[in-house]
Amino acid sequence: MNPDRRSLRSGAMPPVRHAGxxxxxxxxxxxxxxxxxxxxxxxxxxxxxxxxxxxxxxxTHARVLESIKALxxxxxxxxxxxxxxxxxxxxxxxxxLANAFNAELVKRLEQHACTHGYxxxxxxxxxxxxxxxxxxxxxxxxxxxxxxxxxxTGDRAVLSQLLAERVPVIMISCWADYxxxxxxxxxxxxxxxxxxxxxxGHSRIGHAIDGLMEPTTRRTRMDAFERALLRRGLEVRPExxxxxxxxxxxxxxxxAVQTLFHSDHAPSAMVAANDFTAIRLMELAEASGLGVPEQxxxxxxxxxxxxxxxxxxxxxxxxxxxxxxSLSLEVLLSRMEQGPNAPSRQHxxxxxxxxxxxxxxxxxx
Amino acid sequence: MNPDRRSLRSGAMPPVRHAGxxxxxxxxxxxxxxxxxxxxxxxxxxxxxxxxxxxxxxxTHARVLESIKALxxxxxxxxxxxxxxxxxxxxxxxxxLANAFNAELVKRLEQHACTHGYxxxxxxxxxxxxxxxxxxxxxxxxxxxxxxxxxxTGDRAVLSQLLAERVPVIMISCWADYxxxxxxxxxxxxxxxxxxxxxxGHSRIGHAIDGLMEPTTRRTRMDAFERALLRRGLEVRPExxxxxxxxxxxxxxxxAVQTLFHSDHAPSAMVAANDFTAIRLMELAEASGLGVPEQxxxxxxxxxxxxxxxxxxxxxxxxxxxxxxSLSLEVLLSRMEQGPNAPSRQHxxxxxxxxxxxxxxxxxx
DNA sequence: TTGAAAGCGCTAACAC
DNA sequence: GTGTTAGCGCTTTCAA
Lengths: 365, 365
What we know:
The structure is a homodimer.
Chain A: H1 32-39, H2 43-51, H3 58-71, H4 77-84, E1 89-94, H5 100-115, E2 119-124, H6 129-141, E3 146-149, H7 156-164, E4 169-172, E5 180-184, H8 186-200, E6 205-210, H9 215-231, E7 241-244, H10 252-261, E8 269-272, H11 275-287, E9 297-302, E10 315-318, H12 321-338, E11 346-349, E12 352-354
Parallel strand pairs in A: 1-2, 1-3, 3-4, 4-5, 5-11, 6-7, 6-8, 8-9, 9-10
Antiparallel strand pairs in A: 10-12
Chain A binds a DNA duplex through helix 2 and helix 4.
């Protein structure tokens, strides 16, 4: 089947072989030495041509370029990294890529990173603290020049280690003191949502959180929610704040919703900590017979694309996604340039409310 | 606005500084030599301890481990890559991460890759041929051990170059002869959709494709669609196959739908090339007054999560996503081991139909 | 304008 | 068991 495979007559199994060493000739890629030899110059000259440094005569330049093309030479990033002590790699740590908000953010980050000559290493942690730690460890072995954290399990050990090692880190859409952060202003966002609901006549307002959500942001929005209610003199009822975790227990959402709305004094509106949760909440509410927005108004947070569909029509607090991505990368790059001693930068971006069909006046009037 | 920004008094810009060399002490990370020195052994012994190779006395082992911990030593991947001629890096090229199907596939791939000790480099091409080529070039400079293509712009040059360079490549959910491929059986899937519609009484069936879709798969599903109709003796009308590209022209979808359904002889059902398209189509149809499924039945393809929402309730041909991801990675890994001369493996996985609310009997009975 | 030489941090073959 | 040594492919002084 594979004529190139050396046949080993001896009884012992051959050791496991690795890519490139395997059956068939190893694919030896041309090195800078090959280019130098072919063009009859030294490798430093080739290097100069590649990087556009030093001064090289036009003739030599052309000759080198020709050999590069002829050989299909491509510089080896590992070798360059080793000597330059930088990799042009940026690690991106995300909790759940299946969440549309995260996916879009990652996509934009990769786009910007690429523009600046960086390649991204994306890690999905699933919100698992140990997996998060392991992936970050892998990123550090790769000697990434910086790390973007879209997810932070709240395990302070991981973050403080990163900070202690003086690795450039940007926290995106999550928050930690002493670290560079770019996030939406959760307080302003939640206030927008509450004002909208109050304006419609609601006074019994609850809060919903999905267990998958990034912990620091979850806490912040929860806090923002309570403060906003208090500031407006509205009742804060612990039993109106529901949470579930479908990963742990598939029916936990249903149970939470049933319990909440089958009590005498149920909320007429819910603010969800993100769109994912909001959409799931609408689903659960309708499944148990509550019309949205007739019996229950729902506001989300993020502004993901599917909320825009007329069948979903989710009223939501939209994050300025593009600005979030571009500013984050800018902050990270400047941290990478300025070194660990520069003062940290923390930015809060202003969200905006998008009113759609999932909110309306409360049932009784 | 931003007090932290350094104010530049001089007219000239300072030279760009690089990470680690910049303000503040350079962060010199401990090397294997530091560990060796601290434990009073040679670096090969440290290397043996790290990799669990050779034979090291228990005492030495413990001492080395201790120094490693004391120094916070972490091996440098670039150095290892250089000597081992392998990187344990896998490149993942995707067209649009914002498409839920892709995002989920990437997430699963990353998961599996990690399990096998590989780190993934994710590249989003936006369906742009030149961006695709540039990203792949970057992956090759990184000397990735293998590449997973979830997107293939159809630019044969890129793929044939990869194959010529004998880089292990797996095409996922897209197809090319002579390359390792893992994809769903598009013909079977489309047949499932058509059979379902025919069973409901439809005979005028059209096809919809979003311009963003991966070209090879798009063509295959289109072809599958036509063949399935012909095999059942149904009419294939070119004007019933619509396409649009919102990226190019935001209203192109609306126009296509208006034109199609405001003719005398319009289809009563549409098979969309993927769920993304199907959902958009439902939206467009309803916006122009056509009820789904009352006046128009819609079937999607992929089985993305939001199709499951009761408000969307999309009938669709579901891909076995987990199997797709795990088999793809297995094929890629085996290619990496076996070398370029092993026979190529091509797998077609069987999809399944999920019937939900977007399909029903045709309007006239 | 060019080249020689010294590493970057690690592995792997081999000597002791 | 442990150390010595020779690179991996590149950049970067420094001389010529």
